[in-house]
Amino acid sequence: MRLITERKDVQDRVIEYLQAIGWEYIPPANLQEKRGYDIKEPFIFEILERKLKELNPEIITDENVQDVIPSTLTGNQEFLEYLRGKKTVYVEKGRREGILN
User: Fold this and answer.
1) Which residues contact 24 (CB under 8 A, 6 or more apart)?
2) Which residues pair with 91 in a beta bridge?
3) DSSP E strand stretches across the chain
4) Of 57, 36, 49, 37, which is closest to residue 79 (Cα–Cα)?
5) Tens digit of each residue's pLDDT (9 = 90 or more) over 69-90
């Protein structure tokens, strides 16, 4: 009988599935480098900024992307409100508020 392990039977399968639908796997060693070796940092800002602009091209621009990216724990809570649609981003081009996707 084969031994069931968390890594092989759960984590590896989730990683394989996410890669199959287009997610990029970042190995732990590379992840630490991308986070600036700050283990308390939940975001990889380079990827977060790129994805926010990619998913919200009519709302997020080079000019306002930093307005929604958190820099503190309070900022993380605020960012979650953006993602849940409780906060909006002002879009200068259309002179309107926009909800993040």
Assistant:
1) none
2) 96
3) 89-91, 96-98
4) 49
5) 866 656 778 878 888 888 888 7
